[in-house]
Amino acid sequence: xxxxxxxxxxxxxxxxxxxxxxxxxxxxxxxxxxxxxxxxxxxxxxxxxxxxxxxxxxxxxxxxxxxxxxxxxxxxxxxxxxxxxxxxxxxxxxxxxxxxxxxxxxxxxxxxxxxxxxxxxxxxxxxxxxxxxxxxxxxxxxxxxxxxxxxxxxxxxxxxxxxxxxxxxxxxxxxxxxxxxxxxxxxxxxxxxxxxxxxxxxxxxxxxxxxxxxxxxxxxxxxxxxxxxxxxxxxxxxxxxxxxxxxxxxxxxxxxxxxxxxxxxxxxxxxxxxxxxxxxxxxxxxxxxxxxxxxxxxxxxxxxxxxxxxxxxxxxxxxxxxxxxxxxxxxxxxxxxxxxxxxxxxxxxxxxxxxxxxxxxxxxxxxxxxxxxxxxxxxxxxxxxxxxxxxxxxxxxxxxxxxxxxxxxxxxxxxxxxxxxxxxxxxxxxxxxxxxxxxxxxxxxxxxxxxxxxxxxxxxxxxxxxxxxxxxxxxxxxxxxxxxxxxxxxxxxxxxxxxxxxxxxxxxxxxxxxxxxxxxxxxxxxxxxxxxxxxxxxxxxxxxxxxxxxxxxxxxxxxxxxxxxxxxxxxxxxxxxxxxxxxxxxxxxxxxxxxxxxxxxxxxxxxxxxxxxxxxxxxxxxxxxxxxxxxxxxxxxxxxxxxxxxxxxxxxxxxxxxxxxxxxxxxxxxxxxxxxxxxxxxxxxxxxxxxxxxxxxxxxxxxxxxxxxxxxxxxxxxxxxxxxxxxxxxxxxxxxxxxxxxxxxxxxxxxxxxxxxxxxxxxxxxxxxxxxxxxxxxxxxxxxxxxxxxxxxxxxxxxxxxxxxxxxxxxxxxxxxxxxxxxxxxxxxxxxxxxxxxxxxxxxxxxxxxxxxxxxxxxxxxxxxxxxxxxxxxx
Length: 875
Description:
This protein is mostly beta strands.
């Protein structure tokens, strides 16, 4: 057979397939309650022949939003649609056998059942919706929603409260289908009582905009918390007060209130303590906002990083927070949401460190320092959100206001005494508007994002032991960011869509820095202002049919930049087009097994920060020597493959993702390290490449008969790149492997155990000229929680944190923290608790890690053994 004949038969086969697809009749629609207008999920929809045979041609079940879809072979005669679900009157209607959208309402119908005993399965699935029956996982020791989520296979709660499903962050958090909190969902997970929850639902591949369903698909999941009936009829909450000893007086006070009903929800918190400073963590936005002022963070608030465990265990800590959150249904599909939050945190860090810098010679540079820092942060946020999320129309407007104030006072004990003070202020006003309309398979979209922000004048000062001013650094910034876009989606048919998006992005920025360093001596000032215009045209193709989903994006953008240095009157100009490509594919092998793959090439350019050619003082010993004055550029290519598997009947979950990437840059970053450890960082206009290989694997199994869930999370990351050190090019390869097994078990009624292990292996190879070094760090440890229920209404609990890791001289060192306590509940609404912290009286927390070519060993002081007694009243 010739090649021409083969091509003919292939084209003929594709044509016959397309004709067969077009000959199908597709009927879609939505089922709702005739009285309330709410969606009716899990209803059976049948297509039946109207002749005497009453043959069922097709059937389906409505999803969580009441939608259904029937695919029929071509019929000549009318058909009958039947809608049925327990608790509603069954409705039948005759329709033409042709593709159409047919919505239906059902009226409630009273019914009686004989007495039966029903045992719900622990996990059940319907389409892309997964439902965990909380009664199958809850234990008497569980206090909040977060306690429940930690036990559910497939779901991971990060230390900061962020939630992942199958290794990917969720994109929405609902309570009874309403998004009241946005990314600040820790307010709910750490406060709403576990006894108020009926079930936890996971919406896989969740598209939050209804009219984009089957047009723009998502790889992320959403969580929905279903409340018990009593949680929908009366307010719930608690009041807590506590007092303790450190040595020194400790206190803790909390108020939490929550109410949910069919018309809306409200949640409020008021908290304060001087024993953990955790209160403000609940206001963390896990979805992020982005678009910060360019000047924000140019001077870091602290001259060091803080490990997560230290922030709540440092020797002095206090904090307070308050929030008011409300959402109200204003129509069948519309809501109005209001959020207000304030958080304050004060901490004292006592820190000693040994920093080993690769010097591109046979001997490294070792710097030691000892310091004490008093840090305070204040943050105020407010937002108002209106959203109408209907089948054919989407309207959303979000107005945000944010204000932050911080200060840090650091006293350094070096060969010479120094004192560093830092103050910052920042404010931003943000508005996002989104409008979409759908007409058949066509979608029209208009979006506008405007953000104005100001950094009134961050200030860093360094004084000597004689109070003489050594360094003064001021940074001021102003920014106006806009992003206006419109798009049109043309539905070619049920499975094929073309998306055409046009975006105009603008940035107007100003950064003023003024440095007076008398130790050098050095005076430097940056007076930069200008703008960036970036029009982007993105044609996209989307194919979504049965098991296969494909999306191809080809963004074409033009970068137009005009920045000016008002100090030197020099102007920076840049004009260049870029073409990228991105393809995402997903193949569903079975309802619980899917394979994904993606690949792409993207381009990114720097901004005004690339033209800060004069030095900026970051801290007492770190000087940012300035950029090269050349616009930074990166070209990134990547390939990612993975799978997602779940078997809800067996409680088995697994996911794997492997990614390979390559980045090409036109600037090389580097540092020059002085013998005393002072660092001057800089960039040079030199091309270089960096590579990355990452892999993450997750597997979990629930043994419901034994009330046990086991899980394993593992990851591998390899990065390679170049940087400059002491004027020489240095190549480095870093490899990190992590294993985190965990088990949650309630083998007997009177004991609950949760254990999480950790093993990390870090390997680094550094090459510079004839110098070749290799270093290995291995750390392991275990976190454990044990709860004993020896008597009714009495609970004994303990928590442990053990780490074994290398120290500065490569000897092994250990850290063991133990907390324990007892709870007594004399009545369902009163709880008395005694909690003892750091029973081992561990004085220090040591952290060892590599960054690029350097090793850092840091030791923080910890709060000594302490205890606090608290009384909690729930309503």
